Amino acid sequence: MSAASRCLWFALAFAVLALVARAADDEPTRPAPRKENPVWMERHAALLARAKKGADVVFLGDSLTQGWEGPDGAEAWKKHFEPLKAANFGAGGDHTEHVLWRLTEGKELQELKPKVIVLQVGGSNLAANSTDEIVDGVTAVVKELSAQKPAAKVLLMGLLPRGAKADDKFRNKIKEVNKGLAQLDDGKKVRYLDPGAKFLDKEGDLTEDLMPDGLHPSAEGYAAWAEAIKAPLEELLR
């Protein structure tokens, strides 16, 4: 897929990234909708409809999760996750507070009884929130999932690295957030997984073939990410 085509797809599928401004009273732990954005509302409606079909595995998160159904992620999804009866509940640009709203007032998972929820969220909060706020926001999502779906296990993703170089302004913050997220692994219901090393070379720079825009995986990147997820996911499904 050409760089131009990739950029166009993300522009259309994740137009929410540019359209939504974070409200002053939004907090990572307080459920907040994005009703002013028609793309997001359409996505929310589509996910409510998707929930009626059932799923054993739910992927929940932001644009990186939604990207599993895009042109770069679709092949890896079909190969690794479609056979597991997985459903994609990603919404481009979502902060933790937006995912919380989708779970609480939005009731997106109400109709579902998943065995495992693969959670990837918090990356969209990096520019707006502190490390502790992001960890608190992800923790709130995990707690809500545990309350709503006590029989389900959560496979919690660490934030993927971003920025081409090892000294990118977000790298240290991502490391600190991931240290906090790792503490949520209780050895029972919540398992933490950090696949970030798969996207880095020996100098710590992003491998361009895997993440050419410094943020979203390419088809090769999604394939590498899927390989990292598949074994622990299948283990949790047993």
Keywords:
single chain, 238 residues, alpha/beta, 9 helices, 10% strand, globular
Q: What is the makeup of the main sheet? A: 5 strands, parallel
User: Radius of gyration, Cα only, in angstroms?
Assistant: 16 Å
Number of helices: 9
Binned, the helix content reads 40-55%
Roughly what fraction of the amino acids lie in strands? Answer: 5-15%
Strands, total number = 5
Distance between the termini: 36 Å
Q: What structural class is derived from the secondary structure elements?
A: alpha/beta
The whole-number mean of residue pLDDT values reads: 92
Element string (H = helix, E = strand) = HHHEHHEHEHEHEH
Strand order of the largest sheet: 2-1-3-4-5
Shape: globular
Residue stretches low in confidence (pLDDT < 50, at least 5 long) are: 14-25
Structure, described:
- The chain has 238 residues and is α/β, with parallel strands linked by helices.
- The chain contains nine helices and five strands, in the order H-H-H-E-H-H-E-H-E-H-E-H-E-H.
- Strands 2-1-3-4-5 form a five-stranded parallel beta sheet, sandwiched between helices.
- Helix 8 links the parallel strand 4 (153-157) and strand 5 (190-193).
- Helix 7 (131-148) runs parallel beside helix 8.
- The chain starts with a helix and ends with a helix.
- Residues 14-25 have low confidence and may be disordered.
